[in-house]
Structures are given as C-alpha cells and as structure tokens.
Write a structure and sequence with these properties.
alpha/beta; Helix Hairpins; six-stranded parallel sheet; 367 residues; 12 helices; 3 domains
Length: 367
C-alpha cells in the first residue's frame, strides 16, 4: 500500500506543470521575507481570535466553561467567514458586537487583500516568466535543442511530425520563442549550466546542438555547450552540427556522441546524385517525416535472436512491410553484413518502412 501511495505521489509530482510551479515557487521564495507572511497570518489569526472572544463575552452564554468554549468555537468560525466576506450578520445583535464586526471586516479584509495580492502577483509573475522563457520545462525523456538556426527550425518540424512523439525544449538567447507554441522555450545561454538545468538537461533523452551562425566562433560555443552538458549530464546523448570540419576532433575530445558536418554531408550527397539521378530525392524522402517510407531504428523482438540477416530481412518484409538496412550492435552499425552474421541479444535494426506498426522504437540506454 505504501509503495502504491509513493508511486502515486511520484507520478503526480512528475507532471511538467507542477514541476514548473515548484520551480517558480522556489525561485520566488528565495528572496522573500518569510517572517513577513508568518506575521501576516499570525496577525489575521490574532484579530479573528480576539474578535471571537469579545463577541462570545458579549453575546454568548456564560453558565459553564463548556458553553463558553462551544460558543467561542462558533464565534471563531463566524469571524473567519466574516473576514472571507461570507459571514452571517445576524450572529451579532447588540451595538458592541456590531462595532467588533465592523472592525473585523475593516482589518481582516485588509490582511486577506494583502495575501490575495501576493498570490495574484505570483500567478502574474509565473505567466510572465513562462512567456519570456524564464521558467523550467519540467519534462523528462525529452529532446533539448541548444541554439537556433535554419537547421534547428527544420529539426523541430521533423520531430513534431515524427512517429516518436518526443517533447522538445529549445534553449536560445532570445526575447520570444523562435519555435512556436508547440515547443517549450528557455531563454538563456546554451553554455550556462543553470540555463541547461532549466531546460531539464539532466533528465533529457538527447541534446542537439546547433550553431547560431556559420562561423568558427559558433563552433567554439558548440564545444563549450557539449562540455557543459557532459559536466552535469554525461548520460545524455549529444548530437552536434558543425560548420568547420576542422573542429570535429575538438568535439570528439569534448565527448560529443554524434557529430555532423552539414556541408560535408550535402557535398557527398550532391556528388552521388550527380552519378545516380534521383538519389538525393530518395535519401530526403526516407529520412524525413510525412508521406511515404521513412527510416527507423527499432528494437528487435526476442524471437528474432539467432536469425541470419537473410532470415531477418525476410521476416521484417513479410510481417512488418519493412526493409532492412543495417544491424546495430554495441554502438556500431553493420551495413550489409556477411551471410553468416547472426543476431545476438541487444541487437537492433535500421529499417525503412511507411510506419512503425507493431515494431517498437529503440529506447536509448542511459547510464
């Protein structure tokens, strides 16, 4: 029973909205004088209690101590409801009690208004900070896009239309969200650890680093971003877009998991397309979401273990309408493996298919 309750509490407090509220509450209460609110509530309680005692002495029976305590409890309840604006005016019936009621309304409502003003101020601050990208995402198992450029824009569009349905957080130094309302925005420095934490980098599935401009300085910031991520979340998979191929070794030394030189990929694809017409259109189609077949990396069911490549290819084609491209094993891709290659536990497959169907997408293993 305790485990169920603990699991339920953990599930409730893992909701992104609640985690964002907790972040803002913590942020606002760091510099708030808590003694002020304690004095405010204590003052409100004291005013209501004194008013209840006076009204009880004036209005209530005094035959026994029990009668006095019972009437005092009723008077205290009347005092609370009066402060809240819903008290019963017929509870008091003489001039002295009337005066106490008026004073209670005057001072009590003023204190309640102060408390209400503080709560309204918090709500307004929450809305404004969220709109300005000053909040925290509260997500888990999401993708963090660090930096913004045309590649990042296409990346977000691709992920939003893909079958994997991952939440996305964009970290960028900007006054407004460049990615639209469907993506959570964090206004900050991609090399700053605290800004990355607000994006939930420690609980993210992957981080994609995009250079803000086509310069060497932008690549240097990408290297610093990878180092910042590795310092607090080494288990997160980092994929980096690079402008200059000479910076690839620096990113490898920074422990980036995957590095893509977009100019090199484009030039090689153009070269192949000049030799084999239609190849660029084919590659673009299989790596992009939307209509037609797409490329997926999927987990293989246990019953496939021990099959040869030819047997696996036949099963995938017959059962899932998928074409096998490569086998993944221990972080390496085996493209067109030999005929005696057999599937082992932990292997995955890269396939081309119109949809995942009953195949399960490969989940990243985080240490």
């Amino acid at each position: 029973m305790r485990r169920r309750i603990a699991r339920l509490v953990s599930t409730v407090f893992s909701v992104p909205v609640l985690r964002r509220l907790a972040f803002h509450v913590d942020r606002m209460t760091r510099n708030v004088d808590r003694h002020f609110f304690l004095r405010l509530f204590a003052g409100l309680f004291g005013i209501v209690f004194v008013a209840a005692v006076l009204v009880t002495l004036i209005e209530g029976p005094r035959e026994s101590f029990r009668d006095f305590v019972s009437t005092l409890a009723s008077s205290f309840y009347w005092g609370v409801t009066t402060v809240m604006g819903s008290g019963d005016p017929s509870y008091v019936s003489n001039p002295g009690s009337y005066l106490i009621s008026w004073l209670l309304v005057l001072f009590g409502v003023a204190i309640v208004a102060s408390i209400t003003g503080a709560l309204v101020g918090f709500v307004i601050d929450f809305i404004l900070k969220e709109g300005q990208g000053m909040g925290a995402s509260g997500y888990r198992d999401h993708i963090v896009v660090c930096g913004w450029n045309s590649t990042a824009r296409e990346l977000v569009n691709e992920l939003n239309g893909d079958d994997y349905e991952r939440r996305i957080v964009v970290v960028h130094d900007s006054d407004k969200n460049p990615a639209g309302n469907e993506v959570y925005f964090v206004n900050g420095d991609v090399t700053d650890v605290e800004d990355l934490r607000r994006a939930g980098i420690e609980e993210a599935m992957a981080a994609v680093i995009c250079p803000a401009s086509a310069t060497n300085e932008a690549d240097m910031r990408s290297i610093l971003t990878v180092m910042a991520i590795e310092s607090i979340a080494p288990q997160v998979r980092t994929v980096v877009e690079v402008n200059n191929p000479q910076h690839v070794d620096h990113l490898r030394r920074a422990n980036a998991d995957e590095i893509m030189v977009t100019s090199r990929i484009a030039s090689r694809l153009l070269a192949r397309s000049s030799l084999y017409p239609g190849l660029a259109e084919l590659v673009t189609d299989i790596v992009s979401g939307g209509e037609g077949s797409e490329i997926y990396r999927v987990a293989l069911p246990e019953q496939f273990i021990g099959l040869s490549v030819d047997e696996l290819s036949s099963r995938l084609r017959a059962d899932h309408a998928a074409t096998l491209l490569a086998i993944g094993r221990d972080g390496h891709a085996f493209v067109n493996p030999p005929s005696d290659f057999r599937l082992a536990p932990g292997d995955d497959a890269v396939v081309v298919a119109e949809s995942l169907g009953s195949l399960a997408p490969l989940e990243l293993q985080q240490d």
